Automatic annotation (TrEMBL):
It comes from Macrosiphum euphorbiae. Pathway: Carbohydrate metabolism; hexose metabolism; Carbohydrate degradation; glycolysis; D-glyceraldehyde 3-phosphate and glycerone phosphate from D-glucose: step 1/4. InterPro entries: ATPase_NBD, Hexokinase, Hexokinase_BS, Hexokinase_C, Hexokinase_N. Residues 237-469 form the Hexokinase C-terminal domain. It catalyses: D-glucose + ATP = D-glucose 6-phosphate + ADP + H(+); a D-hexose + ATP = a D-hexose 6-phosphate + ADP + H(+); D-fructose + ATP = D-fructose 6-phosphate + ADP + H(+). Belongs to the hexokinase family. This is Phosphotransferase. It comes from the Eukaryota. Keywords: ATP-binding, Glycolysis, Kinase, Nucleotide-binding, Transferase. Coiled coil: none annotated.
Length: 485
C-alpha cells in the first residue's frame, strides 16, 4: 500500500460531531475534499429529516384511515394482535417460521421464574414444491410438523398451540386469517394467492389425521420482534427490522385504526406499517441520490419500496459500490483504475461495509475487502476515501430509520418506550446502534424516553409467544392488554 509519510500519525476519530467517537478510529482530514463534496448528497441534515418525519407521520395517518388508506403509500396493516406477553404464560408452544426456501419449526416451553427452553429444526422446501401446487407446499409443511412432533415426543392427540410467521405480502383480516397478496423470493405455488394461508395450513394438517395443531395466530417478523422483546420487557411498543429489508410495527390505539374490525373492548392493537414503501409517491425525491435512482431502476420492483432501498442490507453495499465506481471514473479514486469485479452489480456486499467500518488500525480490513474486489495497492488516501463513503451510506441508513422511529414515538406520545430491534444490519454493523440512538434522541420530543433492545429470534420465539398469549387469554384470571405497565 502506498502511503504518504506526512499523513501517518494524524489519525483521529471520524464523525466526532456525533459525540460517539469511540470506535471511529480514522481521520476525515485524510479524505480528499473532492470525495467529501461528492458525498454531501448522502448526508442528511436534521431539517431534511424533520421534513421526512412530517411526511412519514402523514403517510401513517393516511394508512390508518378508512377513507384515506386505499391511496396511502404506507399501508398500516392491522395485525389483530392486541395483547403482549406479561410473564404469566406457561406451557409448550409451537412456532412455524416460513419466509424462504428453508423454514423452521420450533418448540418453546415457558415456566416459572422466566424459565425458557427452545428446540428447533430447519426443513427445506424442495425447488419443485416452491413452484408447484399450493396443496403440495402445505402438505409438505404439515408432514414436517408431524415429524417434529413425533421426534420430540409430544402428544399428537392434544391440540398443540402454534404461532405462524409468514414472511410474504399478507393482508390480514383476523388474528388467524390472512390472504396472500403475491408470492416473492422465488415461490410461485398455484392456488395460494388471494387465499387464506391459515386455512390452507389447517386443511393440510387435517388431511394427515395424525396430529392435532391449533393455529392461534399469523404474524410477520416485526410483530414477532415486539412479542419477543415484550416477554422480557412489557414496555416494548415498537418493533423494527433493519436487515435484508426494513419495516416497523407499533402499538396503536384501537380508535385510531379505523380499518380494525376486531375486539374494540381492548384499547390497543399492533399495526404493521410496511414503511418500506414510504416515498413511492415522490416524498423522498429531494433526498434521493443518483445512486438511489440507479438501484431503483435496476431492481425487480422499480418505483416501489424506495425507503427500504435507501436503508436495508439488500442495497447498502450496492450504493457504496456505485459511488466508488462513479468516483473512480472521475479519477477521484484509485487513479481511475477499476477492477471488473468492482464494476459488477451486487459484487460489493453490505458485509463489506461493516468490515471496513470495523477497522481498528492500519486499514487492515479495508485492504482485505479491496483485494477481494480486485483493487490492489490502493493508497492510504484511497482507503480513507472508501471508508468515508461507507460511513456516509451507513450513517444515512441509520438516520433514515431514526427519522421513522422518531415519527412513531412522537405520534404515540408515550413517555417511555422500549423499541425491539432485529436484522443483520443492526446486529452486525459496528456503529449502527449508536448512530440510531443519537439521531432518534435528537428528533424525538424531549420528554419522551426510549431505549433499543435487541430482539432474540422474533420470527420464531415471537410466533410462539403469540400462541402463548392467545392461550393465556382464554383464562379469565389472567390480565391482558397492550396498555403500559
Amino acid at each position: 500500500m502506498r502511503t504518504k509519510p506526512e499523513m501517518m500519525g494524524q489519525l483521529r476519530p471520524a464523525f466526532s460531531e456525533l459525540n460517539i467517537s469511540e470506535g471511529f478510529e480514522f481521520d476525515t482530514e485524510i479524505v480528499t475534499n473532492e470525495i467529501k463534496e461528492d458525498c454531501k448528497s448522502l448526508l442528511l441534515s436534521n431539517e431534511q429529516l424533520t421534513t421526512l418525519m412530517k411526511d412519514m407521520d402523514g403517510a401513517i395517518r393516511n394508512g390508518l384511515g378508512k377513507d384515506t388508506n386505499p391511496s396511502s403509500i404506507v399501508k398500516c396493516y392491522v395485525t389483530y394482535v392486541q395483547d403482549l406477553p406479561n410473564g404469566t404464560e406457561r406451557g409448550k408452544f409451537l412456532a412455524l417460521d416460513l419466509g424462504g426456501t428453508n423454514f423452521r419449526v420450533l418448540l418453546i416451553e415457558l415456566g416459572e421464574n422466566n424459565y425458557f427452553h427452545m428446540d428447533s429444526e430447519i426443513f427445506k422446501v424442495p425447488a419443485h414444491i416452491q413452484t408447484g401446487k399450493g396443496t403440495e407446499l402445505f402438505d409438505h409443511i404439515a408432514k414436517c410438523l408431524a415429524e417434529f412432533i413425533k421426534k420430540h415426543n409430544l402428544d399428537s392427540k392434544k391440540a398443540l398451540p402454534l404461532g405462524f410467521t409468514f414472511s410474504f405480502p399478507l393482508r390480514q383480516v383476523g388474528l388467524t386469517k390472512g390472504y396472500l397478496n403475491s408470492w416473492t423470493k422465488g415461490f410461485n405455488c398455484s392456488g395460494v394467492v388471494d387465499e387464506d394461508v391459515v386455512r390452507l395450513l389447517k386443511e393440510a394438517i387435517k388431511r394427515r389425521k395424525d396430529v392435532e395443531i391449533d393455529v392461534c395466530g399469523i404474524l410477520n417478523d416485526t410483530t414477532g420482534t415486539i412479542m419477543s422483546c415484550a416477554w422480557k420487557n412489557p414496555n416494548t411498543k415498537i418493533g423494527v427490522i433493519v436487515g435484508t429489508g426494513c419495516n416497523a410495527c407499533y402499538v396503536e390505539k384501537v380508535e385510531n385504526a379505523e380499518l380494525f374490525d376486531g375486539d374494540k373492548t381492548k384499547p390497543h392493537v399492533i399495526v404493521n406499517t410496511e414503511w418500506g414503501a414510504f416515498g413511492d409517491d415522490g416524498k423522498l425525491d429531494a433526498v434521493r441520490t443518483k445512486y438511489d435512482r440507479e438501484i431503483d431502476e435496476d431492481s425487480l420492483n422499480p418505483g416501489r419500496q424506495r425507503f427500504e432501498k435507501m436503508i436495508s442490507g439488500m442495497y447498502m453495499g450496492e450504493i457504496v459500490r456505485l459511488a466508488i465506481v462513479d468516483l473512480a471514473n472521475q479519477n477521484k479514486l484509485f487513479e481511475g483504475r477499476l477492477s471488473e469485479q468492482m464494476k459488477t452489480k451486487g459484487a460489493f456486499g453490505t458485509s463489506f461495509v461493516s468490515d471496513i467500518e470495523g477497522d481498528k488500525a492500519n486499514y487492515k480490513e479495508t485492504l482485505k475487502v479491496l483485494s477481494e474486489m480486485g483493487i490492489n495497492d490502493p493508497s492510504l488516501v484511497d482507503c480513507a476515501n472508501v471508508r468515508y463513503i461507507c460511513e456516509c451510506v451507513s450513517r444515512r441508513s441509520a438516520h433514515l430509520v431514526s427519522a421513522g422511529l422518531a415519527a412513531l414515538l412522537n405520534k404515540m406520545d408515550e413517555k417511555s418506550v422500549t423499541i425491539g430491534v432485529d436484522g443483520s444490519v443492526y446486529r452486525f454493523h459496528p456503529y449502527f446502534h449508536k448512530l440510531m440512538v443519537e439521531k432518534t434522541k435528537q428528533l424525538t420530543k424531549s420528554d419522551i424516553k426510549f431505549d433499543l433492545m435487541l430482539s432474540e429470534d422474533g420470527s420464531g420465539r415471537g410466533a410462539a409467544l403469540v400462541a402463548a398469549v392467545a392461550v393465556r387469554d382464554e383464562l379469565p384470571s389472567m390480565t391482558n392488554g397492550l396498555s403500559a405497565k
